[in-house]
């Protein structure tokens, strides 16, 4: 759930940046303080979100590896269960 929220936040940051850049202004981009503040905020948040997404990716890989290790045991357990069910 957190991953989807992070992706939605990134999308919102992109939209905000595009909106700020599309505004017509007489002020040059390098002197546009609200735009620079928005860029700095977006950069900080995107760095945090990038780290969180990387941790989530590693966690998912760990979960998948652990899940795979139980497949053979589950297969044997299902064979044993149905064999015992067939005997009764």
How would you summarize what this structure contains?
This protein has 88 residues and is an all-alpha fold.
- Terminal CA distance reads 45 Å
Mean pLDDT: 90
Cα-based radius of gyration, to the nearest Å: 25 Å
Order of helices and strands: HHH
Q: What is the SS-derived class?
A: mainly alpha
**DSSP helical segment count:** 3
Specify the oligomeric state. single chain
Observed structural traits:
mainly alpha; 88 residues
Secondary structure layout:
Elements: H1 2-22, H2 33-69, H3 71-87
Account of the 3D structure:
The chain is an all-alpha fold and 88 residues long. The protein is built from three helices and no strands. α1 packs antiparallel against α2. The two termini are 45 Å apart.
């Amino acid at each position: 759930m957190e991953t989807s929220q992070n992706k939605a936040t990134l999308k919102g940051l992109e939209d905000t940046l595009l909106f700020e850049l599309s505004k017509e202004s007489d002020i040059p981009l390098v002197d546009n303080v609200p735009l620079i503040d928005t860029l700095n905020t977006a950069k900080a948040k995107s760095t945090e979100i990038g780290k969180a997404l990387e941790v989530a990716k590693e966690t998912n890989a760990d979960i998948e590896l652990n899940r795979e290790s139980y497949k053979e045991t589950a297969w044997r357990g299902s064979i044993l269960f149905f064999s015992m069910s067939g005997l009764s």
